[in-house]
Amino acid sequence: MTTNVLDWSTLDHKVKSYLDPETGIDIPQKAFPILMLASLLNISDEEAEDAITDGSMDRGVDAIYIDEREGRNAVHIFQFKYADKYENSKKNFPSGEIDKLASFLDDLLDLNKNLQKTCNPLLWNKVVEIWSLLEKSTISIEMHFCGNTLEMQETEKERADSTLGKHQYINVHHHGLSSIVNIFVNGNKVKIDDQLQLVDKDYFDRTDGSIRGLICTVEASEVVRLIRSPNNPNEVREEIFDDNVRVYLSRTNKINRKIIETALSDDGPLFWYLNNGITITCDSFSYMKAKRAPLVELKNIQIVNGGQTSNALFEAFSKSDNGLEDVLILVRIIETKSQPVSLAIAESTNSQTPIKSRDLRSNDEIQKKLAEAFEGMGFAYERKNGQHLDKAKNIRVDALSAGQAHLAYTLELPEVAKKDRGRIFSDLYETVFTDELTADHLISALKVLSNIEIKKKKLQSAIRKDVPFIANEMFLIDGAYHALFAVGQICDCRGINRHDHQEAIKITSTAIKYVNDVVEKAKRDDEAFSFNRFFKDAKTKTKIASYIHICEDKK
Fold first, then answer.
1. What's the pLDDT tens digit per position in 466-508?
2. What pLDDT does residue 229 have?
3. Side-chain half-sphere of 491: how many Cα atoms within 13 Å?
4. For 56, left (φ over 0), alpha (ψ -120 to 50), or beta?
5. Is-contact 213 306, C-beta < 8 A?
6. pLDDT band at 177 (very low <50, low <70, confident <90, very high)
7. Among residues 108, 246, 119, 231, which one has the least CA distance to residue 164?
8. If DSSP codes are grouped into helix, strand and coil, which group holds residue 62?
């Protein structure tokens, strides 16, 4: 697929909006990876920045994101290239580092302890985390070649697939300028018209104003046929899955493996009862009523719920052509031409998108009051994601980020703030956003966190540039929210109001020292120590709090 100047310019402007010289993101080549990680994997900018491993001794790996959300066990490994001139975007993505990545994968999957000598600290931390994950489950490894250029030449794509794909559960993805821009312009959605053959008379049709619904039963093989790529029968046509295409649904996570096992087992006939089925939205559907096993014509299909089930059935079918003969699945088809209604259906039926529930809360009275309070303070409070992109970055306050900081600092749940941020606008909403919460509380937590984040970003920048760094602050990459929690603990010990951020910031260095002391002890006690696992453990904050109180009582 060719590139054009409009595509290049569109992406270039989007990349430049991510520039932040104060935090070291001073050139497009540094901003591009953050934008792409956040967009392709549907993660926060903060999580994207923490995934970057680029720099000296990076073994050809620019970023690693380990995805354990909602039962996933996927490791996304990225290599990025950014053309700063349109002319250079006409070139193919360079394939010279395929062999570097292959060498890294060999060492990674062989659990080669010598890896530490050839990896920078950022990359090594990811390696330890991956090894920890490998001990308890099967993972998928998703290799991404991503650039604002043409994709690799076909022969080089084949070489990448054969060289990297020789390992089990490794998939290779190529992202070029055209496909990247397509994601931002229309979410990579393609209009799909198709048919579904229903089973017998197992269907029920109803209409409510402009919305029609059809509940029916279909054979699992029909779902497989529906989602199969017309160009490659061995692949799923990802464009049929609304937002799911961005997270590259792994067929190896524990939920999908259970679906596959059930479908192929003697319990196959029970699948209809054991599975929630799938939900399809469309512009219209039609069929001959009162007919046995009618054929339903569908226009502009999107599978908005049941992505895991659909992908798992596809995988099961690939393992055994006849394995799904007795498997039936419940399907709900909803006809609506209203985009808001379609999005609401996707949100309410899909439990895998907790962060989107933020939009449902955006008109809550508490959110509106906070927005008014922040406006009076000279800030733009973003009740919805990206609500004030037209405002200067230094005056924007993101509701989710503010909730995270408050959760760690005031509510003392740093492990939740780091790893389960989606819960802030779902099951923890009433806990985080109460009538007692004020804009001052949120801004103080954010200001103290910002002071910690500055130290973390300086650390990451030093490692990437291969210059001396403060080794005792390495834990901040995974433990920044625990450092924030520690500041709150010290404030309590010293009788300082946590919301006096100017005083709280003064003890940040002490908090970091205390947390590092606890980390060093944990390292001595556990040969398999990893920052990620340590800061995910709810017991860690108790250890930190106890140590702080002992130290402060001695003063």
1. 888 898 999 999 999 999 999 999 999 999 999 999 999 999 9
2. 87
3. 24
4. beta
5. no
6. very high
7. 108
8. coil
Mean pLDDT of the chain: 87
Q: What is the pTM of this model?
A: 0.68
More confident call, 155 vs 237: 155
Element (H, E) at 502: helix 501-506
For residue 222, give every residue at least 6 positions away whose Cβ sits within 8 Å of its Cβ, in sequence order, or none.
196, 197
Q: Quick one: which H or E segment has residue 141?
A: strand 140-147
- For residues 182 and 34, give the distance between their C-alpha atoms in angstroms, rounded to a whole number: 18
**Cβ-Cβ contacts under 8 Å for 550 (sequence gap 6 or more):** none
Distance CA 425, CA 405 (A): 14
For residue 536, give the H/E element and its range: helix 531-536
| Percent of the chain topping pLDDT 70 | 91
Tokens (6 digits) for 221: 């093989």
Strands (E), 148-250: 170-175, 194-208, 211-219
Model pLDDT, residue 61: 96
Q: Label residue 342 by pLDDT band (50, 70, 90).
A: low
- Bridge-partner residues for 196, per DSSP? 296
Picking from 310-314, 317-321, 376-380, 441-445, which range would have the lowest pLDDT averaged per residue? Answer: 317-321
Whether residue 400 is predicted with pLDDT greater than 60 in this model: the reply is yes
CA torsion, ordered 422, 427, 431, 437, to nearest 10 deg = 50
Tell me if 425 sits within 8 A of 357, measured CB to CB: yes
Dist. CA 414–CA 416, nearest whole Å: 5
- Residue identified by tokens 């490791």 is 75
With beta carbons less than 8 A apart as the criterion, state whether 421 and 358 touch.
Answer: no
**Helix H or strand E encompassing 417:** helix 414-419
What radius of gyration, in Å, describes the C-alpha atoms of the chain?
A: 25
Q: How far apart are CA 405 and CA 309, in angstroms?
A: 35
CA 312 to chain centre: 20
Q: With 0-12 CB in 10 A as exposed, 13-18 as middle and 19+ as buried, what is 290?
A: exposed
Work out the burial of residue 96: count CB atoms within 10 Å of its CB; fewer than 13 is exposed, 13-18 middle, 19 or more buried. Answer: exposed
Residue 174 CA to residue 80 CA, distance in Å, equals 11
Of 496, 411, 492, 409, the C-alpha closest to 450 is: 409
The residue ranking higher by pLDDT, 546 or 18, is 546
- Counting every residue written for the chain, the total comes to 555
Position 126 confidence tier, pLDDT thresholds 50, 70, 90: very high
User: 367 with 439: CB under 8 angstroms?
Assistant: no
- Of 54, 101, 53, 302, nearest to 186 (Cα)? 302
In this structure, what token pair is assigned to residue 468? 């001396």
Average pLDDT rounded to a whole number, residues 169-191: 79
Query: Who wins on pLDDT, 18 or 450?
Result: 450
The secondary structure of 87-136 as a DSSP string is GGGGSBPP-TTHHHHHHHHHHHHTT-TTHHHHS-HHHHHHHHHHHHHHHH
Give the pair of three-digit tokens for residue 205: 């049709």
114 C-beta neighbours (distance < 10 Å), count: 9
Distance CA 409, CA 451 (A): 13
